[in-house]
Amino acid sequence: MLKQRIITALVLVALFLGLLFFVPLQWFSIVIAGVILLGGWEWANLSNLNRALRFVFLAALGGALVLTAHYVFDFDFSSPDTDRARQILAVACGWWALAFLWVQGYPASAMLWGNRWARGFIGLVVLVPAWLSVVILQGLEHGAWLVLFVVAVVVAADVGAYFVGRKFGKHKLAREVSPGKSWEGFFGGLAACLVLALGVSVAFDLPTKNTVLFTVGVLVTALASVIGDLVESMFKRHRGIKDSSRILPGHGGILDRLDSLTAALPVFTMAALASELPKYL
Known about the structure:
mainly alpha
């Protein structure tokens, strides 16, 4: 099992890096849309939709992606309308703030989102802004490195939470959703991301105002990554399944790998646009 996990991880990393650094933006956007559609199939399962309705959901998701591509990019992915992008990203950020309250209120909160149609709609709110965010970041100067940095924030939050939580964790973060996570681990993850953000700010000599915006953005991104993980865990628990699918040997499904990123990407993209980070790299 461990060998299988390692092989899958190495293949995924190689494909991801190749996509980031060697694929033109237009094709990058299309490939990522394909990944999002695969995640959409899994989300339809989390929503307890039957096979026929899953195809309906995929059609709705595909249509939403096309409409977003037209609304924000006019199908020219190198020239986004950032004001329109911020509108969509603001909705996504607001959703994740609400989702954290639902996680804390689970299982009672399921009365608000447990309906399969509600869960399906939530899938659109989760997946479309994630696609929009990664395409915008990739299209910025040094975009591939920005996308990698978001991944680094998610990893730092996860690693910091693991080690601090393992050593000091006593108070459960969301007992009914993910009993292994603690508040101590959560703050440990934030501390790791704070160090990462300050290190990047110093390395690239960001002005004080931009450093503050960037650091706050990184910390909120880390918070969002935790919420993304918890929300998928909540939906899987409600659905009674362990993994979103088995498409990735040893790793479960697409959503099991991307749950944190679906929340982290919109938040970080908002922060990157506000702090004008790319021009300092």
